[in-house]
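User: tokens in, sequence out, please.
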């Protein structure tokens, strides 16, 4: 069996659902159920004995040790994190706690567990750390994309905390021989993403007839990857990645934010037409402090060594995503609780805005 952390969040839940769709190897899923963790994401697994959900914190060393001792996983797949840049600007402490201290706690528990395994168990064990391209900092328009050798230069509290966790993971391999693997992935999108991130926020606001808040000039560039493709890449890294290595994972799909929003509006105009175009809702608002201008991923290593390439194009992935949100309006309403409204007014209330 495998131990997954953060499997009630966006990517983790997609990973667990895909995993149990594709095989019968059980999953122990440790999640603290923060605002981003949602048991509804795992509803299709209700009553499924292959999925053991544990409501708990990765910073709780005794709990992690107990789970390792009881379930004897052959791998840990570590998603649990605070993951939203804007929240990290408003309140960085939780990011250091979960992303740095939490990863440290897992590594220490994994190290002790791994050391006590027999020869075969030791050789087979893997610690797969799920990280981000944001650790590499910001590119100019003409810079080559991030490779695995690009020096770290994180700019936000979020990316700094993820960079710190990546360094710990690296060191636990180098110093203690823990068989770690790291994936540094670009921006994900797809079903089950919490509507604080660009794509689901824009879909939710558009459907509610609310402004679509584009930060700054909207010309910041991100590489976008459909979440199902990220999950496939992670399974491949777990299966065949070389311990100690890092793999950049991306969609070969750089887009400026404003172009993403225009594409979303066009899809919504087609799939859920109203008497006006959703584009009329676009509003440029005060930029995010320290906003990274461009991320881009060179994903040739994972293709060359592990034979992975994304299956979805941006067009197919985004269409699936918009359709999913249209079909799951109850899911959206359920996560737009009081705490969500509070975040929206905290993040957007102070920004000056003007219609596009
Ligand atoms: P998310 O915010 O949707 O989910 C995070 C999950 O972790 C939630 O279920 C939450 O309850 C859980 N969690 C938070 N703190 C915890 C703690 N202390 N103990 C146990 N569980 C805890 O995040 P996501 O978008 O699914 O991202 C998952 C991972 O992938 C993160 O490590 C993130 O840095 C990385 N990543 C995300 C993206 C992206 O575009 N979303 C891209 C690259 C990498
Ligand atoms: P986000 O989804 O928060 O991911 P990240 O900051 O980790 O890349 O944002 C993606 C891009 O969209 C980023 O450049 C910020 C921008 N953005 C907006 O323009 N408006 C918004 O309301 C949000 C949430 C993001």
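Assistant: Sequence out:
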């Amino acid at each position: 069996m495998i131990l997954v952390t953060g499997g009630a969040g966006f990517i983790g839940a997609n990973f667990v659902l895909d995993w149990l769709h594709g095989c019968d190897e059980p999953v122990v899923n440790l999640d603290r159920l923060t605002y981003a963790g949602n048991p509804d994401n795992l509803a299709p697994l209700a009553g499924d004995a292959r999925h053991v959900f544990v409501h708990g914190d990765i910073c709780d060393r005794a709990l992690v040790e107990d789970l390792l001792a009881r379930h004897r996983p052959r791998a840990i797949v570590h998603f649990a994190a605070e993951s939203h840049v804007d929240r990290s600007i408003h309140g960085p402490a939780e990011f250091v706690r979960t992303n740095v201290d939490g990863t440290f706690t897992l590594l220490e528990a994994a190290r002790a567990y791994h050391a006590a395994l027999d020869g075969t168990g030791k050789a087979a064990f893997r610690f797969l750390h799920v990280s981000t391209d944001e650790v590499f900092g910001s590119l100019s328009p003409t810079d080559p994309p991030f490779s695995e050798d690009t020096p770290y230069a994180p700019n936000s509290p979020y990316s700094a905390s993820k960079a710190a966790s990546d360094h710990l993971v690296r060191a636990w391999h180098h110093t203690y021989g823990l068989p770690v693997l790291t994936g540094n992935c670009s921006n994900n999108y797809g079903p089950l993403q919490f509507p604080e991130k660009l794509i689901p926020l824009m879909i939710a606001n558009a459907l509610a007839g609310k402004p679509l808040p584009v930060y700054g000039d909207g010309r910041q560039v991100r590489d976008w990857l459909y979440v199902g493709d990220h999950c496939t890449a992670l399974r491949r890294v777990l299966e065949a990645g070389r311990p100690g290595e890092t793999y950049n994972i991306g969609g070969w799909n750089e887009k400026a934010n404003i172009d993403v929003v225009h594409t979303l509006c066009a899809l919504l105009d087609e799939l859920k037409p109203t008497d006006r175009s959703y584009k009329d809702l676009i509003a440029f608002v005060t930029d995010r402090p320290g906003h990274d201008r461009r991320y881009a991923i060179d994903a040739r290593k994972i293709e060359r060594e592990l034979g992975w390439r994304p299956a979805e194009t941006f067009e197919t992935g985004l269409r699936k995503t918009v359709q999913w949100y249209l079909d799951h309006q109850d899911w959206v309403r359920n996560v737009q609780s009081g705490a969500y409204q509070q975040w929206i007014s905290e993040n957007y209330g102070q920004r000056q805005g003007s219609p596009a």
